[in-house]
Structures are given as structure tokens and as C-alpha cells.
Write a structure and sequence with these properties.
The complex is a heterodimer. In chain A, helix 5 packs parallel to helix 6. Helix content of chain A is 35%, strand content 28%. In chain A, 46% of the residues are buried. Chain A has 8 helices and 12 strands. In chain A, the strands form 3 sheets. Chain A has a 6-stranded mixed β-sheet with strand order 6-9-10-3-11-12, with helices on both faces. Chain B has one domain. Chain B is built from 11 helices and 23 strands. The two termini of chain B are 32 Å apart. In chain B, strands 5, 6, 8, 10, 11, 13, 15, 16, 18, 20 and 22 form an 11-stranded mixed β-sheet that branches. Classes of the chains: A alpha/beta, B alpha/beta. At the A-B interface, helix 2, strand 7 and helix 3 of A face helix 9 and helix 10 of B.
Chain lengths: 256, 484
Amino acid sequence: MLEIHDLHASVNGVEILKGIDLRVDAGETHAIMGPNGSGKSTLALVLAGHPAYEVTSGSVSFDGADLLALGPEERARRGLFLSFQHPIEIPGLRLDHFLRAGYNEVRKSRDEDEMDVLKFDRLIRAKAKDIRMDAALTKRSVNEGFSGGEKKRNELLQMAILEPKLRILDEVDSGLDVDALRSVADGINALATPQSATLIVTHYQRILDYVVPDAVHILIDGRIVRSGDKQLAAEIESKGYEPVAEAAGLAPAGGS
Amino acid sequence: MTSKETVRELETQGYKYGWVTDVEEESAPPGLSEDIVRWISAKKEEPEWLLEWRLRAFRHFMKLLEDKQNPTWANVSHPPIDFQAMSYYAAPKPKLELESLDQVDAEILRTYEKLGIPLEEQKRLAGVAVDAIFDSVSVMTTAKDTLAKQGIIFSSVSEAVKEHPELVKKYLGSVVPYSDNFYAALNSAVFSDGSFVYIPPGVRCPLEISTYFRINAEGSGQFERTLIIADKGSYVSYLEGCSAPMRDTNQLHAAVVELITMDDAEIKYATIQNWYPGDADGKGGIYNFVTKRGKCAGANSKISWTQVETGSAITWKYPSVLLQGDNSVGEFYSVALVNGRQQADTGTKMTHIGKNTSSTIISKGISAGHGNNTYRGLVKILPKATGARNFTRCDSLLIGDQCGAHTVPYIEVENPSSSVEHEASTTKVSEEQVFYAQQRGLSAEAAQTLIINGFVRDVVKRLPLEFAVEANRLLELNLEGAVG
């Protein structure tokens, strides 16, 4: 589903990604782990098409299409979803209005009819219930005044509505207590399908106790320096990133 | 549509009302003089008292002009206006005194239909009575008979002068005297037409009353005058819209609107202002210099202004309320959008005179392109206004980094028992917000529209439904291309 080849990207002229290779197939869950500043979030944002990042070389194919040639909204319409590390607030814009507009754009791109307000209201209520989110939040401004947990749950709600093929979850566990973490993880698992794939970007291993990856990749200084199965995550948890970095001839935290 | 019109429509890029109606018009020769004032008054077959009033206003204006008393305090800039270069009257020929549609020029009917205000009986908007003003004259007023059955008077001001001189004489200039300000003096001297509404005691007007102002003639100014009186315990909701052809010269629109509410009466006055804003380089467009004021003369009465200002090269207007009656309420809800080289200096004055009077000001300014937007407001609590309250909220939204937003609130409190609150915010439509929306499948343009609609929601929701839709559409059109 996703094939990244020798991807280099920079922001403000500083190279952050220095040659990423990664392949994720349908039905798989991959974790990208790494210390702060290693380029994890950059990778997530580059895949989603954030305009501040410039891809300097490499290629990415998504479902057979040249992902890098598509605008961010086109990537979303084709089923790429990014759960933001820091979801954005939009004062005055009601969450349900916002989400219905996006949902209908996705439907239109699939030649489906737009969904009317009443049907969508039923859909959003059902999905909110599924992920145990208070439906009253959907009548408030997008993320405005939401707690950290509410923001993450809101990302999950949007994912539930949009039913993406590729789910990129950037630090989905940050700011969550253990109960909230478990219920968000339950939501992630419940929404997974054999046709979808998941890319979990995380600093800590703990989310991987709940959302079990098929593969784990360690990203340090803009490169994947080691890949393995879920045991690798456990190893990082006990020994930290330093041994892996040293083995790759790098200092951790992306700098020396 | 002719090919010439098509080209024009393409050129306007977003301004959909920029065509010219091909109709023969009679205009006053350019220039301002006592003769012109007399000519306009004679044209309208006015009584002597009105001519005298016009002449007093004219002399006052000429004095202000000589003394260089043009207002310069607003945060707008434009070359000096040559008051001798424009024509003060333009009307379609032959002079139309219309009782039936048959006498309205077909071209003019088509114009209003294109503007979305069909005047033919079968096509009219349900629940709305319309006064159609074309350059200096009212060409048609709909639903007059229906309204007359309840004693409601809805006509052009010119007609009201003839049919109800006692009302016009009593109230004209009673809220905005001709000496009020520079442009009010000019308007009082040369005003041509506008709408007149009187709601008798205890009557709730069953229709939305509205006036649509269209500037068509080249080289002329439009000086309309609107007067609305809500007698004791009555209610009326009024809406005005406006548009003008796309031209590369500036045209002056200097209107005066006066509202009066007696005890327990309420007037809701809404404006969707869409005068031609000029091109992207600031060439052409309407100078919209308007004085609007309401007087809550009676106790427990209420005046509410709602405005969506998307057009004009320059907007200079401060719809205000004199809160004279005890417990009276004044409201001002405003959205002002500037794009291209547009300039807006708009806001309100709430003058608390009576006891327990209250006012609410919600202003939403949107600045894009090289636009410059200023909120200017005065909340004045006079010594006898015990228990007066005001709440003000001014929000500014910036799109891009070449535009400006300014907030100039004045607060004068002379009664210690009053309460005045002021909140203000400035935000930017950020790249992050747009990207977030794109990540959910929306285009950058759609994202921006949603963000703007969210920003103005508190104001737009106060408009009647079909006009709220129109207002949102206009905001969208006027911002096309603002986010790259």
C-alpha cells in the first residue's frame, strides 16, 4: 500500500529526512520509534503533504499512485489519514460542520452523493458512541478548549468517520493517562480492517502494548537504522535508544 | 448576454454585479450649486419647507467645504473628492411613476432579476416587500397594498413627502440633523430618493421590508435617504442590499438613514453592502460614506443594526443608537471584509441617555490582500444613565501578511453605576489550520471559507435565512484567491 524509497526532506533548508525506505502492506501495523528530533513527525507530515516541508529527493507510492505529486487534500481523499500530534484549533467553526464538509469531499471524490445534515448527524453520533466520545463535543468549535484527551479522541472520531486506508498516528498517546490510552488504543484496534494499514509514530513503547505492531523501525537522525518485530520495542524500552544509535555509528537525538 | 458583458464579467473576478444596464437616463449636469438643489427639489415637486431645509443644508455644506472641514480622522486615504465634477441626479427616462409593472422598463426589471431581486409578482421572494431604487429614483415598491391594509406605510421617500408630509416633516433630520457631519450635510442638500416606512402602534409588520439600491449611471453620486418610524409597540425587520457596475473611476454614495422607535417598539435593520470594491490595484470602486443612526425615543424600545460589509473601495459608516428611553436596547452586529486595496473604517456609537439602557456591540473584521480594516466605536454613558450596561467584542481575522486590522474603541463613562465590558482579539487564518482541514479532504479554498464562516457566525445568524446564505456566499466570492 505504501512504499517509500530513499526519501529526503528538509524544512527551511535543513535536511531532516536523510533517505527513508519503508514498505507497509494492507493489514499491517508498523511502528516508527525514535528519540525526540529524529524526524518521526516530519515523516508523518511529509506523507500528509505539509507545505512547510520540501521533499528534495526520493519517491513515495500510495496505492499505486505517486503520492508526492498529490496535494494534501487529494491524499486525504484517497484514504491517507494523519492523526495530529497537536490537533489544530479553529475558533468558531463547529466540529460537526467541519467534519461533514470533509466527509462529503471524500464522498464526492468517490462519485458518491453528499450526505445530508440529518444523516450525518446520526452517523457522527453513532461513531462518537463507538469510541466513547461525548457527542456534545461535536457541536463545539474544532478543538477549541478541548482537553488533551478530548483532542486525541476527536482525531479518532474523524478517523472513524473518514475510514482511511492508511492511518498515520503521530504520538497518539501523548498527554493521555493510562485509562484514556487504553480506550484510545481500543478505538484504534476496533477501526482497523484487513484492507487498512497503520503507521504508529511514537517516542514511547507503551502504546505498542495495546496496539501491537507487526514491525518496528527505529528512526535516528533522519534514517531508519534498525527494523525488527515487537521485541525491538521492548528492547528500546529497557535499554533506551543509545545502544541502537551507537551500533549505527550515530549519537542519539539526531545530533552530536 | 452580449460578448461585451461576458468579458466584463470575467474581468470582475468575483464581483458578479459589475454590468451596466443599457437604459436611457436623465442626469443633472455635473456640479453642485444652489440651482442644482432647486432643480432636484423642483424635479420632485417638493413643498417649500423641504426646499428651504435642503438650502440650509446646502449652505452649511458649502461652508464646511470652504473651511476644509472634510472629515480626515478616519483611517482611510483617498485623493480629494471633486464635488463639482459629479452629477447629483440620474434617473431612467421617462420619469416613472409606477403603479404597475407594465410601466417599468424591461431592462430595469431584468437588472433586478439578475441581482436576485425579481420584482414580477409571481417571482417575488415570499415574505419580502421590496423598494427598488435605481440611481436617484425608486422604480418600484412591491406589496404596498398588502401592507397598507394594516396601516403600514412603505414607499419611496419622494412619495412619502407628497402623501404623508406631516410624518416626513416631523421626523426628517430629527435623528441626523443636516449639521451632523460633512456628508450628512451634503446628503440633506441633494438627497434624491430612498425608502420610507411607518409602522402604526401595536402592529407587527408581517413582511420583511427591504430596499435594493443599484447605482447604474456613470459619473453620478447616489444620495439616498431612508426614514423608518416604529410607533408604540410595533415591530419591523428591514433589509437593504446594494451593488454597482464595475468602473475604473470612483463614485460617491453618501446616504443617511434615520430610525425612530417609540415605547416598546423594535426595529431590526440589516445591510448587505456589496458596492463595487474596485479592482485588485485599487482602481475604481464606490466611496461609501454613510451616516446611519437610530433613536430609541421610547421606553423599552430596541434598535438592532446588523451589517455585512463586503463591497466598496472605502467604507466609512457607524450605524449608531441614541438610547434615550429608559430600558431601551441598542445592538450592533457587524462583519466587515476588506480584500484587494479596500479600506473600511466602520463601527458604532452607543449613546446611553436613559436609565437601565443596554447595548451590545459585536464586530468581526476580516482583512485580506492589501486591505485595511478599522473598527471605530464609541460607548458613551451620560450622567443620568443610571444602571447602563454595554458589552463590546471586536474580533479581527487576518489572511496573509499584507493587510491591516485596527481597533479604536472610545469609552466615555459619566455615571458610576454603569458597567462597560470590552473584549478584543486578533487571529490569523494560519497555514496550520488550512493544512489540518486539507488533511480531512477539504480544498484550501473550502477550508478558508469554513474558517471564515465560523468566524462570522455570531453575526450572520442574525440575518433572515435566505440573506444569511447570500452573505456567506458574498464573503466567499470576495475572498476568492486570498489564500494561495
